[in-house]
Amino acid sequence: MNNNRRSQIINVNLEGIDDNLAKVIVKILSKMLFDFARSRVDRASIPFHLFIEEAHRYVVKDNDVFLIGSNIVERITQEGRKYGVILDLISQRPVEI
User: Fold this and answer.
1) How buried is residue 70: exposed, middle or buried, by Cβ count under 10 Å (0-12/13-18/19+)?
2) Which residues touch 88 (CB under 8 Å, ≥6 apart)?
3) Among the listed residues 59, 42, 39, the one whose alpha carbon sits nearest the alpha carbon of residue 51
4) How far apart are CA 6 and CA 80, in angstroms?
5) So what's the pLDDT on residue 72?
6) Is the pLDDT of residue 53 over 70?
7) What's the start-to-end Cα distance of the chain, in Å?
8) Contact 87/80 with Cβ under 8 angstroms?
9) Closest-CA residue to 27 (of 93, 82, 92, 87)
10) How far apart are CA 40 and CA 52, in angstroms?
11) Is 84 exposed, middle or buried (0-12, 13-18, 19+ CB in 10 A)?
12) Distance between CA atoms of 13 and 1, rounded to whole angstroms?
């Protein structure tokens, strides 16, 4: 049921970017998306489905929480559904996530 609403797909390709910079970009974009979804008065009114391919490059257990104050990927996995943010992590090395 689409209710005449439009959908949009945005693909951000970080293939040629250094892993450290790409990790920062993924975290910042994820935080911006999550914060936007949380700020909506009508909860989960705009659903987001975030796919992170090669997740072992960008989603690692590290200590750089100073960047945005928290591990945003962990927070999205815990709270995202109630705000309409669904996260898919795709990796050939899941043990590194």
Assistant:
1) exposed
2) 49, 50, 51, 52
3) 59
4) 22
5) 87
6) yes
7) 35
8) yes
9) 87
10) 23
11) middle
12) 30
pTM: 0.81
DSSP secondary structure letters along 6-57: ---------TTS-HHHHHHHHHHHHHHHHHHHHH-SSTTSS-EEEEEETHHH
Pull the structure tokens for residue 38.
């949380």
Q: Is the Cβ–Cβ distance between 72 and 27 less than 8 Å?
A: yes
3-state secondary structure of 78: helix
pLDDT of residue 78: 92
Q: Using one digit for the tens of pLDDT, what is the confidence trace for 17-47? A: 998 888 889 989 999 999 999 999 998 888 9
Amino acid at 13: N
Q: What percent of the chain has pLDDT over 70?
A: 86
Confidence of residue 95 (pLDDT cuts 50, 70, 90): confident
